[in-house]
C-alpha cells in the first residue's frame, strides 16, 4: 500500500511517500512560501534526479496539486498514476483531550480539530487546510490524523493539572497537554529494543532537543509527565522560546514596557531562549561555534540550556523513583556531542557514566554513549515522526479493509 504523509504548516507542506508495509521511503519533499508568487518546491525520489522550482503557489490545494503532479512525473516521480496512493496521514499538533490516539478523518474529526484552533492557533488551522486540500485533490482517499498530544494523554492528573482555579480547566480546558508525542513514543520503543528490555519495565527520560525542546518521563511505556504544557512554550529553554519562567513576569513586563498580549507572546515565543541570552543566535551550531571562539554570551546561553535539561532529567528520575536510560533525539540531541556531554556530566550521581569517546564518535544511527556496565544508560536515537504517521495510517487503512 502507498501512503502519503503530510505535515502542513501555515505556509508550507512537507511530505513523504511510503511503500507499506516494507516502510520504504519512495519520495520526499516540501513546498515552502505558500501564498507567494515565489513559492519553492523541492522533491527527491529514490533513483531519480532532484527536482526544484520556484513558482506561484497561492494556497494549500494548489501546493498539493503540484506535489501530486511531481509524484507522477515521468522523470522525477515514483508513481504511474495518482490513484496508487491509498491513504494519506497528517501530523496534527493539538488533539486536546478528544484524541488519545490516531483516527480516520470524518466530518466530526474535522469539527473537533477546528474547535481546537484556540489552543493551537499557529498549527491546527494549517493542518485542517492540508486535510481539505487532500479532499479536493484526492477525494476518494482515506485520510488519518496523528496527534502530537496523543501519547501524553496517559499522564495522571498530578502531572497535567495546573494549581489554578479548577473552573479554568472546566471552562477552557486549561491543562498540560504536552507535544512532540509521536517522537517521544517512537524513541522510547526504539530505546527498549536497543536495550533489549521490555518497554513496560523501563523508566526513561526522552529528550527531544530540536528547534522546540521537550523532555518526557516515560514510565513503563507510557507518558507520565512532560515538560511542554498547554502550549509548546512551557518547559525547557529553546531556540527562541523562553520555557519556564515566573508567570508574574508576564504581567510585570506588560505593565513596565507597555506591551500588548500579542507583543508579550511574541517576545516569549520568538525573541527569548538561546536567541535572547546569546544576543542573536538561535541555532545550536552557531552557539557552539561562537562559544569555541570565546563568546561569553554564547557560552552562558549554552550553559543555561544544558543546566535546565539536567534539572528536568533529575526531576523526572525523582518523579518515577528511578531511571534506566536518558534518550537524546532531534536536531541538537542527535548531532551535538558537546550538549549531550554538558547534560550528562552532572548526572553521575544517578549512575549515568558517559563514555566520552562513544559520545564524540561520528557514528550515526541508534547507539549507546555510556560506558559498558553504566547503571543508567544514555542513548542517541534518531527520531522518525513520519514513519509513525505512515504506520498508524497504514494500520487504520487495513482496519477499514483496504489494501494489503
Ligand atoms: P529539528 O527541530 O529537530 O529539525 O532541529 C533543528 C535544530 O537542530 C537546528 O536549529 C540546530 O540548532 C540543531 N542542529 C542541527 N545539526 C546540528 C549540529 N550538527 N550540531 C548542533 N546542533 C545542530
Automatic annotation (TrEMBL):
<comment type="pathway">
    <text>Metabolic intermediate biosynthesis; acetyl-CoA biosynthesis; acetyl-CoA from acetate: step 1/2.</text>
</comment>
<dbReference type="GO" id="GO:0008776">
    <property type="term" value="F:acetate kinase activity"/>
</dbReference>
<comment type="subunit">
    <text>Homodimer.</text>
</comment>
<keyword id="KW-0547">Nucleotide-binding</keyword>
<feature type="site" description="Transition state stabilizer">
    <location>
        <position position="180"/>
    </location>
</feature>
<feature type="binding site">
    <location>
        <position position="14"/>
    </location>
    <ligand>
        <name>ATP</name>
    </ligand>
</feature>
<feature type="binding site">
    <location>
        <begin position="283"/>
        <end position="285"/>
    </location>
    <ligand>
        <name>ATP</name>
    </ligand>
</feature>
<feature type="binding site">
    <location>
        <position position="7"/>
    </location>
    <ligand>
        <name>Mg(2+)</name>
    </ligand>
</feature>
<protein>
    <recommendedName>
        <fullName>Acetate kinase</fullName>
        <ecNumber>2.7.2.1</ecNumber>
    </recommendedName>
</protein>
<keyword id="KW-0460">Magnesium</keyword>
<feature type="binding site">
    <location>
        <position position="91"/>
    </location>
    <ligand>
        <name>substrate</name>
    </ligand>
</feature>
<keyword id="KW-0963">Cytoplasm</keyword>
<keyword id="KW-0418">Kinase</keyword>
<dbReference type="InterPro" id="IPR000890">
    <property type="entry name" value="Aliphatic_acid_kin_short-chain"/>
</dbReference>
<dbReference type="InterPro" id="IPR004372">
    <property type="entry name" value="Ac/propionate_kinase"/>
</dbReference>
<feature type="active site" description="Proton donor/acceptor">
    <location>
        <position position="148"/>
    </location>
</feature>
<feature type="binding site">
    <location>
        <begin position="208"/>
        <end position="212"/>
    </location>
    <ligand>
        <name>ATP</name>
    </ligand>
</feature>
<dbReference type="InterPro" id="IPR043129">
    <property type="entry name" value="ATPase_NBD"/>
</dbReference>
<keyword id="KW-0067">ATP-binding</keyword>
<feature type="binding site">
    <location>
        <position position="385"/>
    </location>
    <ligand>
        <name>Mg(2+)</name>
    </ligand>
</feature>
<comment type="function">
    <text>Catalyzes the formation of acetyl phosphate from acetate and ATP. Can also catalyze the reverse reaction.</text>
</comment>
<keyword id="KW-0808">Transferase</keyword>
<dbReference type="InterPro" id="IPR023865">
    <property type="entry name" value="Aliphatic_acid_kinase_CS"/>
</dbReference>
<keyword id="KW-0479">Metal-binding</keyword>
<dbReference type="Pfam" id="PF00871">
    <property type="entry name" value="Acetate_kinase"/>
</dbReference>
<comment type="similarity">
    <text>Belongs to the acetokinase family.</text>
</comment>
<feature type="site" description="Transition state stabilizer">
    <location>
        <position position="241"/>
    </location>
</feature>
<feature type="binding site">
    <location>
        <begin position="331"/>
        <end position="335"/>
    </location>
    <ligand>
        <name>ATP</name>
    </ligand>
</feature>
Amino acid at each position: 500500500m502507498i501512503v502519503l504523509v503530510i505535515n502542513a504548516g501555515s505556509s508550507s507542506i512537507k511530505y513523504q511517500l511510503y511503500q507499506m508495509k516494507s516502510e520504504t521511503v519512495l519520495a520526499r519533499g516540501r513546498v515552502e512560501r505558500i501564498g507567494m508568487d515565489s513559492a519553492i518546491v523541492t522533491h527527491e525520489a529514490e533513483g531519480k534526479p532532484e527536482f526544484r522550482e520556484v513558482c506561484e503557489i497561492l494556497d494549500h490545494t494548489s501546493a498539493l496539486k503540484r506535489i501530486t503532479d511531481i509524484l507522477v512525473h515521468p522523470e522525477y516521480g515514483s508513481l504511474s498514476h495518482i490513484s496508487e496512493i491509498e491513504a494519506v496521514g497528517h501530523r496534527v499538533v493539538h488533539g486536546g483531550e478528544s484524541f488519545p490516539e490516531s483516527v480516520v478523518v470524518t466530518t466530526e474529526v474535522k469539527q473537533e480539530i477546528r474547535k481546537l484552533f484556540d489552543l493551537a492557533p499557529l498549527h491546527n488551522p494549517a493542518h485542517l487546510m492540508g486535510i481539505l486540500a487532500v479532499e479536493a485533490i484526492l477525494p476518494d482517499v482515506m485520510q488519518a490524523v496523528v496527534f502530537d498530544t496523543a501519547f501524553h494523554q496517559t499522564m495522571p492528573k498530578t502531572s497535567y493539572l495546573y494549581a489554578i482555579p479548577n473552573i479554568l480547566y472546566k471552562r477552557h480546558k486549561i491543562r498540560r497537554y504536552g507535544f512532540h508525542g509521536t517522537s517521544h513514543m517512537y524513541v522510547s520503543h526504539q530505546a527498549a529494543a536497543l536495550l533489549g528490555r521490555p518497554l513496560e519495565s523501563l523508566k526513561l527520560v526522552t529528550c527531544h532537543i530540536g528547534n522546540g525542546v521537550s523532555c518526557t518521563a516515560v514510565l513503563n511505556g507510557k507518558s507520565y509527565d512532560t515538560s511542554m504544557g498547554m502550549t509548546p512554550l512551557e518547559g525547557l529553554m529553546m531556540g527562541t522560546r523562553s520555557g519556564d519562567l515566573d508567570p508574574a513576569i508576564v504581567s510585570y513586563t506588560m505593565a513596565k514596557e507597555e506591551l500588548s498580549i500579542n507583543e508579550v507572546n511574541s517576545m516569549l515565543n520568538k525573541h527569548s531562549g538561546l536567541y535572547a541570552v546569546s544576543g542573536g543566535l538561535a541555532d545550536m551550531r552557531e552557539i557552539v561555534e561562537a562559544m569555541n571562539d570565546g563568546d561569553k554570551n554564547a557560552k552562558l546561553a549554552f550553559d543555561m540550556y544544558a543546566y535546565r535539561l539536567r534539572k528536568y532529567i533529575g526531576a523526572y528520575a525523582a518523579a518515577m523513583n528511578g531511571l534506566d536510560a536518558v534518550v537524546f533525539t532531534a536536531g541538537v540531541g542527535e548531532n551535538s556531542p558537546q550538549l549531550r556531554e554538558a547534560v550528562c556530566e552532572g548526572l553521575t550521581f544517578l549512575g549515568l557514566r558517559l563514555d566520552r569517546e562513544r559520545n564524540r564518535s561520528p557514528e550515526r544511527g541508534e547507539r549507546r554513549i555510556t560506558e559498558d556496565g553504566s547503571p543508567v544508560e544514555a542513548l542517541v536515537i534518531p527520531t522518525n515522526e513520519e514513519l509513525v504517521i505512515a504506520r498508524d495510517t497504514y494500520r487504520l487503512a487495513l482496519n477499514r479493509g483496504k489494501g494489503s
